Amino acid sequence: MRILIATVTAGGGHVAAAAALEEAWRALRPADTVERVDLIQFFSPLHKKVYAEGYVQLVERAPELWGLLFDKTDNLKVTRRLSRLSRLFPSNSRKKFTDYLKQFQPDAVLCTHFAPLETLELIKTSEGGVTRRPDSIEKTGTHRARPSDIWGPPFVASVVTDFEAHALWMNPCVDLYCVAAEETKARLVARGVPQSGIVPTGIPIAAKFLSKPDPQVVRQILGLRDDQPVLLVLSGGFGMGPVAEILAELDKAPQPLQTVVVTGRNEELRRELAAQTRKHPTHVLGFSTNMHELMAVADLILTKPGGLTTSEALALGKPLFILNPIPGQEAANSDFLLEHGAAAKVNRVEDLPYRIEQLLGSKKLVEMAKAARSLGRPQSAVAVCQEVLKRLG
Predict the structure, then answer these.
(1) What would be the CATH architecture of the domain defined by 209-375?
(2) If pLDDT is split at 50, 70 and 90, which confidence band does 275 have?
(3) Given pLDDT bands bounded at 50, 70 and 90, which one contains residue 143?
(4) Percent helix, strand and coil across the chain, each rounded to 5?
(5) pLDDT (tens digit, 9 = 90+) per residue, 279-302?
(6) Is 92 exposed, middle or buried (0-12, 13-18, 19+ CB in 10 A)?
(7) Confidence category of residue 107, pLDDT binned at 50, 70, 90
(8) Which end of the chain is more exposed for a tag (fewer CB within 10 A), N or C?
(9) Confidence check: pLDDT of 228 > 70
(10) What are phi and psi of 210, to 5 degrees?
(11) Could you give the residue range(s) of every CATH 3.40.50.2000 domain in the chain?
(12) Tell me, what's the pLDDT at 349?
């Protein structure tokens, strides 16, 4: 079979979910032809800059505006009108993606971002999606087109990467919705999607989160003490949020603790934080590929509730502490975690010392960890692939 995993760089979660699906599919069916495509590659330089950086800048500088846009577009009638409007204007990036699809001719397309769905809908509704090709097999870039001269419309899976399914994820071309939880499924059903077309697989995460790193070994490697709790502070792949303020407040906590902070690709922030001295031991890291090990040694994870980070923590049974989630998908993810007892939350950074003091070593923290384990879906990427395979027969 020929499998395409389509995503868009808009925050790190969509790309990470796509990588997890590619990893899982190759492990399940190594003989299949699998490609992962980021639609950003089809954008013009200006479009690419606006799309890739615009979201980050908007949520960092004007989160209320982002929340307003999120709410206003979370309406099926609005999204359909926007889709029809966009089709009235020529789009070079849409044409490039369409050409790519017709050349690669996938049997199934797994989307970890909603953007590919519009083009896939056009392909499915245009002449039934059938494409005729020359008799010869054409080489197209890094892959070969399939030998058949007829290609029908592919099976389309919408793999939702948050705990709430925004209307933009919904499209008539979708054959299967893979969602985070039963609550996510119920939301889609309430909006008219047949139950048979929705499966709560969990949000796809990398296979390394199935492993069980030895916390004591990881502590030794990282130079962490065995007699103090570990707080893991995450700022996302782009190093966003008031990380410096969080560390300053944590340093006011009266009880012994140690902190590991990950600044992602924000090298300027890493250098700034590393140069500061603090009362409590603090380990400042840049972009990290061993997140499963960092989470394994953490007693509590302080983070923004992005869908992927949240799913990774839950897979390892780690309680979360949420600080000031941005309106929109993060607020919805926060509500889900709080409702299930897997997280605590504060809206003001100055409240951290008191809340941390109350949590560390408490029965409440043990209960939060238990709730996190019950929500975790470490096999999520495999579950998505297996469900698609079952539907394809």
Answers:
(1) 3-Layer(aba) Sandwich (3.40)
(2) confident
(3) very low
(4) 50, 15, 35
(5) 999 999 988 889 999 999 999 999
(6) exposed
(7) very high
(8) C
(9) yes
(10) -80, -20
(11) 2-205+379-392, 209-375
(12) 92
Rama region for 241: left / alpha / beta (φ>0; ψ in -120 to 50; rest): left
Neighbouring residues of 169: CB distance < 8 A, sequence distance ≥ 6: 114, 117, 158, 160, 177
| Six-digit token string for 23 | 């990893």
Cα gap 306→164, rounded to integer Å: 11
Region for residue 203 given its phi and psi (left: phi exceeds 0; alpha: psi -120 to 50; beta: otherwise): beta
Instruction: Compute the distance between CA of residue 60 and CA of residue 83 in angstroms, rounded to an integer.
Output: 27
**Strands in 193-276 per DSSP E:** 198-200, 230-234, 258-262
pLDDT digits (tens, 9 = 90+) for 187-205: 999 999 999 999 999 999 9
pLDDT tens, position by position, 6-25: 999 876 789 999 999 999 99
Closest CA to 43 of 97, 120, 6: 97
d(CA 337, CA 333): 6
Cα dist. 66→74, 118, 170, 365 in Å?
12, 22, 20, 32
pTM of the model: 0.89
CA–CA gap between residue 77 and residue 71 (Å, rounded): 13
Quote the CA–CA distance of 9 and 38 in Å, as a whole number.
7
CB-based contact 372:342 (threshold 8 Å): yes
pLDDT tens digit string along 309-342? 999 999 999 999 998 888 889 999 999 999 999 9
Which are the contacts of 225, defined by CB distance < 8 A and separation ≥ 6?
A: 219, 258, 281
Amino acid code (one letter) for 99: D
Distance CA 255, CA 281 (A): 12
Alpha helices in the chain (DSSP H): 13-28, 45-61, 63-73, 76-87, 92-104, 116-125, 182-190, 215-222, 243-250, 267-274, 291-297, 307-315, 329-339, 352-359, 363-375, 380-392
